[in-house]
Amino acid sequence: MFSRTGNENFREIESLADNIGQLSFDAGRPPFNCDLSTPTKPKREGLNVNASPAKSMVFDENAGDSSHVSMMDIDGNTAGTEVDVTKSPKKLPADFHRKASTNNTRRLVSVCQMYFLDYYCDMFDYVISRRERTKQVLKYLDQQRAQGGTSSGISSEWQVYLNKEAGILRKRRLKPKNKDFEMITQVGQGGYGQVYLARKRDTREICALKILNKKLLMKLNETNHVLTERDILTTTRSEWLVKLLYAFQDPGSLYLAMEFVPGGDYRTLLINTRFLQAPHARFYISEMFCAVNALHELGYTHRDLKPENFLIDSKGHIKLTDFGLAAGTVSMERIESMKIRLEEVKNLDFPEFKEKSMDDRREMYHKLRDSDVNYASSTVGSPDYMALEVLEAKSYDFTVDYWSLGCILFESLVGFTPFSGSSTNETYENLRRWKQVLRRPRCDNGRYAFSDRTWELVTRLISDPINRLRSFEHVKRMKYFAEINFDTLRNISPPFIPQLDNETDAGYFDDFNNEADMAKYTDVFKRQDKLTAMMDDSAVVSKLVGFTYRHRKGKSGTSGVLYGGSEFADPFATFY
């Protein structure tokens, strides 16, 4: 009924307070007797503050009565409201400063600030876009009247518009629930829950829905990792990081609905190719640095980067995920177990390290991964990519992620990690003596497998903290990246572009109906069963504060009036 003209720019938004309650379509009155550019401010006496804004806009004989004006459509005068300051506390409680300085309190403060900023920005955006919609609808109805439309017909069309506005308000009040999502297939399994490819029923959005056992998380005191993941996902606007669409909870579970990245992970790419050509490896490691830098700019360090953490989107570009949750969690339990294992290998008898050929090391590495299906997903974990100072529980900074990227680059080029051994214990021992073990690989003909500039980069990433590259700017200035323009990477055609049948194609992920794929998660399932057996049947009464989230974009979100400027606004963005 109401057409949208894409070439019309809405450069002027005159008012947030159009008194559209005074409009009437009765034949005996002048049409649309309302000055939309000059807001009216009726008295607040008699206003029904509980009335639905859209319902209070219905036209009747008392249209001039302020009691029928929508609260959404006026500017209220709050003068005269006084605060009794005599009831303020005389002094702060004794433990106020201690509680205020805790990490939990600081997080709640940040969450509250973000919540109210987001809430009011969204509210004003909605109000402004509603004014614009009303103006366009009134213009359309004025044209209909001029063309001989009947008063009853015009009023009927106006009522249709009001009903749609009322529907928008109802949706804005609803919080997402599990039943709002249709499960399509399972695409992941973690220590605390599962990941499903899902579709939101009303908006038809495709997402990766992570469902976590709330009781298990709380019993193991792992909720901080969930909150960290949630906070990172809601804070980021970077195209290099996976985005959060919805976060919600019920008595038994926590839910994170994230954008679905359909191309699988970088590990799958390495398994299929064994190793990459030098230009292809340079492309992917460049994008990985961009993704990790986006995380660092938010003030977070990943600490546990590995190929599984990098996903490939539908266009073939990299996105970073798993910021300390489920299968990729860096819990203190895992750190402690790896630290103990690192100490234990000191007492084991290992033969003196001898450099092997590239083919031998590649075969040994893949044999270990193939023979031990739990190698990468074990609770204890593999030290292939983790910086030594993290394992030794020493102080560290964000550059530990650079060590991990150096290991991933090494593996991408030759098909094995720099400290891989014939067993997990030998890998730990190699890591403990990393300065003696890290060698520049040679081909069978004696030539180095890495160019000089490649080896220079690797040794500036896998190194002591004092010698490691200190910033993303330092990384970009390395000779290895001389041909890379980091600002235009996402405009380059990637070496691999996923072949997808449709938006729900999950072919690049494990098939959870396949026994071979399920075998990879044996250790995860055993640990989950063990932990579940230790739990009692008491209900979880605690709710995570500041967890619920709903993105605002496109059909279910912002019109862009506030965020993009009125010239880019689409007032009907939330309408259809």
Class by SSE composition: alpha+beta
CATH architectural designation of the largest domain:
Orthogonal Bundle
Shape: globular
Mean pLDDT value? 75
What value does the Rg take, in angstroms? Answer: 30 Å
Spans of at least 5 consecutive residues whose pLDDT stays below 50 are: 1-76, 325-332, 373-381, 554-568
Q: What is the C-level CATH assignment of the largest domain?
A: Mainly Alpha
- Overall tally of structural domains: 3
The CATH topology of the largest domain is given as Transferase(Phosphotransferase), domain 1
Number of extended strands: 8
Quaternary status of these chains?
A: single chain
- Through-space gap between termini: 12 Å
**Percent of sequence in beta strands:** 5-15%
Secondary-structure map:
Blueprint: H1 96-100, H2 103-146, H3 151-173, E1 181-189, E2 193-200, E3 206-213, H4 214-219, H5 223-235, E4 244-249, E5 253-259, H6 266-273, H7 278-297, E6 310-312, E7 318-320, H8 332-344, H9 358-371, H10 388-391, H11 400-414, H12 424-432, H13 434-437, H14 452-461, H15 472-476, H16 515-519, H17 522-534, E8 549-550, H18 561-564
Antiparallel strand pairs: 1-2, 2-3, 3-5, 4-5, 4-8, 6-7
